[in-house]
Specification:
It is a single chain. 34% of the residues lie in helices and 25% in strands. α2 crosses α3 (52-60). It has seven helices and seven strands; from the N terminus they run ααβαβαβαβαβαββ. It is α/β, with parallel strands linked by helices. It has helices at residues 3-12, 25-32, 52-60, 74-83, 99-105, 125-137, 155-159; strands at residues 42-46, 66-71, 89-93, 111-116, 139-149, 164-170, 177-183. It is globular. It has a seven-stranded mixed sheet, sandwiched between helices.
């Protein structure tokens, strides 16, 4: 997807698309750093957009690991379908609020990692709460939510759902991004 097309999607649905530009390779590296790929059986990615993180996940995952990618935006989903294929990749055109239903339909266990690019701070409070409850209930006991946002002020939001919340940061992204890693162990 071109930068122009990405920008078009931002202006068309800017509450659901969090940035005017795709994520940088520097943010991608930081987002994937907490993942223990050799142990992961199921990884869920929410809001992949153009697939910057998806491509890296596919490169680093073990062949036995399933990657479930959930994208609501029609243009992004169609673009991902055209450019990404792998036997362990499940591209889903749907909502992050339906993780339970999606994993059940695919006959997959709870996720080891849920990686999210969703601009949760732009979402209505009820939707944000529903998504975070779905995330929490669909993680293995030692699983991780790795979420990036453009605001540092969301630790309280994640702390209401998870026991441990750590924050990392990268200035080598436009705009600079905060990476929240959330666990219950």
């Amino acid at each position: 997807m071109s930068k122009r097309s990405f920008l078009k999607e931002f202006f068309k649905a800017n509450r659901m698309v969090g940035s005017v530009l795709p994520s940088s390779r520097f943010l991608s590296k930081r987002m994937l750093q907490p993942i223990v790929f050799q142990n992961a059986k199921v990884i869920v990615e929410l809001g992949p957009g153009t697939g910057v993180f998806t491509k890296e996940l596919l490169k680093q995952m073990q062949p036995k690991c399933h990657l479930v990618v959930i994208e609501l935006n029609d243009a992004f989903f169609n673009d991902l379908q055209l450019k990404l294929q792998a036997p362990n990749l499940h591209l889903i055109h749907g909502s992050a609020a339906d993780i339970s239903t999606i994993l059940e339909r695919l006959h997959l266990p709870k996720a080891d990692v849920i990686l999210s690019s969703l601009p949760l701070s732009n979402f209505p409070a009820d939707l944000r709460r529903t998504i975070l409850e779905e995330v929490k209930s669909n993680l293995q006991p030692d699983g991780k939510l790795i979420q990036f946002q453009y605001s540092r002020g969301l630790k309280k939001l994640y702390g209401a759902h998870f026991k441990q919340v750590s924050i990392d940061y990268t200035v080598l992204n436009f705009p600079p991004a905060f990476i929240y890693t959330c666990t219950n162990s």
